[in-house]
């Protein structure tokens, strides 16, 4: 198994890049998506969240009020740790299971594991072979994050301040894609890096 961790700051273009890798036939597993699935209505983890944080963080239909909980843990490291210790082990377990399933069912040359907060909270050293960072200028990050999620500029900046800096990411990466141009340019860069990864994983095998 050959696993590429795909990471980058908010709005850098991780999801777009991941989509483009999947159009090249590469399986993509997104830890944010797993987190979402594990906290959907009816999932057992919701009971633990209710027990620890209270019913105030739930909507009347029983769904988790993600925005409220996110806000609650954002400014409190202790509360954040409580939430992370509850859901991160489950996300990790699911991600490893999906990687193993893809490996045996699809026998791909490599797989992409999207881990937005890789450098802030890395639990995946055991499976990652290479790190790919999607990078872009901060002004573009802000513009793109705002247009995608209707966040205000100050909310995006607040999230960026809680993440590692661009230079930390770029200096820790095996490959960096600069996503300052068009989506077509991003696709060209994804295709070029894809060819490199194919060569690298053939050498490893
Ligand atoms: P992330 O997953 O890193 O937070 P996304 O991939 O969701 O970021 O990108 C944020 C927004 O910017 C999305 O609406 C996406 O379609 C757009 N976007 C990303 N890269 C480009 C690009 N090169 N050109 C134009 N729009 C882009």
Molecular structure report:
- The chain is of the alpha/beta class and 205 residues long.
- It has 2 domains: 1-27 and 109-205, 3-Layer(aba) Sandwich (Rossmann fold); 34-107, 3-Layer(aba) Sandwich (Rossmann fold), CATH 3.40.50.
- The chain contains 9 helices and 5 strands; from the N terminus they run βαβααααββαααβα.
- Strands 2-3-1-4-5 form a 5-stranded parallel beta sheet, sandwiched between helices.
- α2 (31-38) packs across α5.
- Adenosine-5'-diphosphate binds next to α1, α6 and α9.
Q: Can you tell me the overall shape?
A: globular
- Chain oligomer state: single chain
Termini Cα gap:
9 Å
* Helix and strand run: EHEHHHHEEHHHEH
What's the average pLDDT? Answer: 94
Q: Which structural class best describes the helix and strand composition?
A: alpha/beta
Strand order of the largest sheet: 2-3-1-4-5
Give the second-level CATH assignment, the architecture of the largest domain: 3-Layer(aba) Sandwich
Helix percentage range: 55-70%
CATH topology of the largest domain: Rossmann fold
**CA-based gyration radius:** 18 Å
User: Which small molecules are bound?
Assistant: adenosine-5'-diphosphate
Number of helical segments with 4 or more residues: 9
Number of domains: 2
Strand content: 5-15%
Instruction: Describe the sheet with the most strands.
Output: 5 strands, parallel
Task: Give the uncertain stretches in residue-range form.
Answer: none
CATH class of the largest domain: Alpha Beta
What's the total count of β strands?
A: 5
Identify the CATH homologous superfamily of the largest domain: P-loop containing nucleotide triphosphate hydrolases
């Amino acid at each position: 198994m050959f696993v590429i961790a795909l990471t980058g700051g908010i709005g850098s273009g991780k999801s777009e890049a991941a989509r483009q890798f999947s159009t090249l036939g590469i399986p993509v597993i997104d830890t944010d998506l797993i987190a979402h699935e594990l906290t959907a209505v009816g999932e057992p983890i919701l009971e633990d969240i209710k027990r620890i944080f209270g019913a105030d963080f739930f909507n009347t239909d029983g769904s988790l009020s993600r925005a409220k909980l996110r806000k609650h843990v954002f400014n409190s490291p202790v509360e954040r740790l409580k939430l992370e210790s509850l859901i991160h082990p489950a996300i990790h377990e699911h991600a490893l299971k999906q990687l193993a399933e893809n490996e045996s069912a699809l026998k791909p040359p490599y797989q992409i594991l999207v881990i937005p907060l890789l450098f802030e909270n890395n639990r995946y050293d055991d499976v990652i072979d290479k790190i790919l960072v999607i990078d872009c200028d901060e002004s573009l990050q802000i513009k793109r994050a705002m247009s995608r999620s209707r966040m205000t500029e100050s909310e995006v900046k607040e999230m960026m301040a809680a993440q590692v800096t661009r230079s930390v990411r770029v200096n820790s990466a095996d490959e960096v894609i600069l996503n300052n141009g068009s989506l077509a340019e991003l696709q060209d860069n994804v295709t070029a890096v894809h060819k490199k990864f194919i060569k690298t994983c053939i050498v490893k095998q």
